[in-house]
């Protein structure tokens, strides 16, 4: 019996010892677990808050457009905030809003008055197309060319002397069509006319290779000439898209 009692006594001591060790280990792990939970709460923003319904942003932009050429008399900048192009446009206060006649805008753009340089390409594309609204003929094509050429004028350069319109595929392509369809410009003079009315980008893309060399340009002119009626119809539709007055 003595041997059995000794064995039981040893077992009880081991059990008590293991219990003490587990209690001690638990006391060490508890702060660590709490620290981990605190860190998790920090990442998730603490307690989960009840989600509130989304409220309308008080700073939401208000739609503002005008189907007219207008000038901000405070800044001397001319705009064309048509809804056909812009969903939103920075509103100009009524006390600083002055309308400009689209048929005589050249008289207004002088001195400190200039187009919105970032949007000058869009503005002059529309103004040039409006020259074709009464019909596509040599007279209207010449008027459209003169208007569109102003997009490449140094008056529309930014402070660093860069004209963003020089990289506009749309403007170059439109000028090409105006020249190609204009029978008052002989075929041998169309390349020169194009180079005198536009500014090309420093690096010509693959899509613009037609204006890199005269041979490429002449091929595009001949392509348009063989589809003259189709291209004139396209230009007429583009001109009718804009209702500016």
- The low-pLDDT segments are 2-8, 39-56
Quaternary: single chain
CA gyration radius, whole angstroms: 37 Å
Distance between the termini: 118 Å
Helix-strand topology string: HEEEEHHHHHH
Mean pLDDT: 84
Helix-strand category: mainly alpha
Total helix count? 7
- Estimate the strand proportion: 5-15%
Mind summarizing the main beta sheet? Answer: 4 strands, mixed
Q: Count all strands and give the number.
A: 4
Question: What topology, given as strand order, has the largest sheet?
Answer: 3-1-2-4
Percentage of residues assigned to helices: 40-55%
The best one-word shape is globular
Keywords, please?
mainly alpha, four-stranded mixed sheet, 245 residues, 7 helices, 45% helix
Textual characterization of the structure:
With 245 residues, the protein is mainly α. It has a domain of 124 residues. The protein has 7 helices and 4 strands; from the N terminus they run αββββαααααα. It has a 4-stranded mixed beta sheet with strand order 3-1-2-4, with no helix packed on it. Strand 1 and strand 2 form a beta hairpin. It is globular and about 50 Å long. The N terminus is likely disordered.
Secondary structure layout plus pairing:
Blueprint: H1 2-44, E1 69-72, E2 77-79, E3 97-100, E4 114-115, H2 120-130, H3 138-149, H4 169-180, H5 190-197, H6 214-225, H7 228-240
Parallel strand pairs: 2-4
Antiparallel strand pairs: 1-2, 1-3
Helix pairs in contact: 2-3, 3-4, 4-5, 4-6
